[in-house]
Specification:
Elements lengths: L2 E4 L2 E4 L10 H5 L2 E9 L2 E2 L2 H14 L8 H14 L4 E9 L17 E8 L14 E7 L14 H12 L4 E5 L5 E4 L3 E6 L2 E4 L10 H13 L3 E4 L4 H5 L3 E6 L3 E8 L2 E2 L7 H13 L4
Parallel strand pairs: 7-8, 7-14, 11-12
Antiparallel strand pairs: 1-2, 1-6, 3-4, 3-5, 5-6, 8-9, 10-11, 10-13, 13-14, 14-15
Bound molecules: pyridoxal-5'-phosphate.
């Protein structure tokens, strides 16, 4: 049985109830995070909580909880859910008013919810056993504030579903200038002639914690050339390697794009180097 956290209480997930007037439910008016934890060890905790704080400030939602308070909730969620490989989902919504009205309500307490779900073991960097991914591509039709980790995810859901219905694991997105933004639930990297490139941070993509960790680790511990720059879809389609990154996937090697092979259709050597370094250094932060 999964144990959840709701408004200062730990309780069985199926007993956690919120009001239908909660603005998270009515408007998607909230911010969330997913923090990975391997055997009770949280990965990138401060970076996740910093991003949550920035997101809350970005939508003017005042909660005022310290990272220490969040840390004890996360530790307790891990303990109460068996301390295995867990994703900790944390969500803050603007709370439930007594009516449905778009403007921010006054004197309404935010709703804070958290639960744990099982994730796989930390990915292997072995070509033979690593999970591979296939992707579709589509024009990014989401909003102009994709840097905010909002619970209003319908745009992402529709893009993800498009790839899913094509039999793919993800959908890689591009703007109206055919420049890569990100994927429906991941950031994207490409490799060409050993040079790694990923789009720069702006309002078109989420500042992924895995993205940032990976860039930092590669800069510190490898000689690989890594560039944050505008990436055109022609480059994505002709890349030697494509990777999708997220907290639960780490670095996912993509071997098929729109039904065509990426590079030689197999996991690339640079991915092996990157995933090995990531595995070695990911807890340094
Ligand atoms: C749209 C989007 N981009 C990127 C990411 C990757 O972010 P992170 O590495 O922080 O998990 C996610 C993760 O959920 C996402 O939803």
């Amino acid at each position: 049985m999964s144990i959840a956290f709701l408004n200062d209480n730990f309780l069985p997930l199926e007993q956690a109830k919120i009001s239908p007037l909660d603005r998270g439910f009515l408007f998607g008016d909230g911010i969330y995070e997913v923090v990975p934890s391997y055997h009770g060890k949280l990965l990138g905790f401060n970076a996740h909580l910093d991003r949550m704080r920035t997101g809350l400030e970005g939508i003017n939602l005042q909660l005022g909880w310290s990272h220490e308070k969040w840390k004890s909730i996360c530790d307790e969620l891990c303990n109460q859910n068996g301390n295995g490989n867990l994703g900790l989902y944390l969500q803050v919504s603007r709370g439930a008013d007594i009516k449905r009205y778009h403007a921010f309500p006054e004197n309404v307490k935010p709703t804070v919810f958290g639960f744990a779900f099982e994730i796989g073991a930390s990915p292997s960097s072995d070509k033979g056993s690593a999970k591979t991914f296939s992707v579709s591509t589509a024009e990014d039709l989401r909003w102009q504030r994709c840097h905010i980790k909002s619970t209003a995810l319908l745009g992402n859901v529709l893009h993800f579903q498009y790839g899913h219905e094509n039999g793919d694991d993800e959908t890689i997105l591009y703007n109206d200038r055919h420049e890569l933004t990100e994927a429906a639930a991941c950031n994207v990297f490409i490799v060409k002639n050993r040079v790694i490139s990923t789009p720069p941070l702006d309002n078109q993509l989420l500042p992924g914690i895995t993205r940032n960790l990976l860039i930092d680790i590669l800069k510190k511990h490898s000689n690989l050339d890594i560039q944050e720059r505008v990436v055109h879809m022609d480059e994505v389609n002709n890349a030697d390697e494509i990777w999708i990154t997220s907290s639960t996937k780490e670095i996912g090697p993509v071997i098929k794009i729109d039904g065509r092979p990426v590079g030689n259709g197999m996991i690339g050597d640079i991915w092996v180097e990157a995933q090995k370094l990531f595995t070695k250094h990911k807890y340094d932060y």
